[in-house]
């Protein structure tokens, strides 16, 4: 087993302590959260709200009832991974293309706990990992030109369609000195459905797995 998978399993195990019996849990997407999903049969959940079709399928395969967010109201807890996290617990997400539904579930939750291994820790977002931007298919070229004007280098994620039928522009080279401002600027481009900067919906708590153990950071 790789060291990184081991760290993902450790941080997933640490997250179990925050899940209460009888809860409806918001469940993220990705390889880190997959480690958590495998452990969820240990908890007596009332149900879950899934942040992607992939997660929904995995939860249902374990016999966990997946509920429609529109009918459950505010969730107590959302747990998800991230592609990058900075010291303010702001994130880049969407490497797996699930950013829009993830941001909706995060926004609808009282608390967002983010699970990462130490490879995800950065001082400034977007220097290495591109910002995934979900775009209406018809607006792809227009949005790409606006991103170039902002100094970005958008790359169309080929052969990928989101759960909502849209496309993704993975955008490199954005100078994200203020994640909040950048998130809002990207949202202002007509045709953008959602962007992968999670500043308005940043993590409340970060569990970070290191070779020395799992550390907890609180906002
Ligand atoms: O769309 C995918 C999500 O934002 C994931 O949370 C993110 O890509 C992290 O995934 P992983 O745990 O596989 O690194």
TrEMBL record:
Reported function: Catalyzes the reversible conversion of ribose-5-phosphate to ribulose 5-phosphate.
GO cellular component: a single term: cytosol
Taxonomic path: Bacteria, Pseudomonadati, Pseudomonadota, Gammaproteobacteria, Moraxellales
Taxonomic source organism: Psychrobacter sanguinis
Biological processes per GO annotation: D-ribose metabolic process; pentose-phosphate shunt, non-oxidative branch
Residues involved in substrate binding: 29-32, 80-83, 93-96, 120
Record's catalysed reaction(s): aldehydo-D-ribose 5-phosphate = D-ribulose 5-phosphate
GO terms of molecular function: ribose-5-phosphate isomerase activity
Record carries keyword Membrane: no
Root EC class: isomerase
Entry keywords, A to Z: Isomerase
Gene3D superfamilies from the UniProt entry: 3.30.70.260, 3.40.50.1360
EC annotation from Swiss-Prot or TrEMBL: 5.3.1.6
Gene name for this UniProt entry: rpiA
Annotated active site: 102
Family from the record: Belongs to the ribose 5-phosphate isomerase family.
UniProt name for this protein: Ribose-5-phosphate isomerase A
A Pfam family this chain is assigned to: Rib_5-P_isom_A
Subunit structure: Homodimer.
Pathway participation: Carbohydrate degradation; pentose phosphate pathway; D-ribose 5-phosphate from D-ribulose 5-phosphate (non-oxidative stage): step 1/1
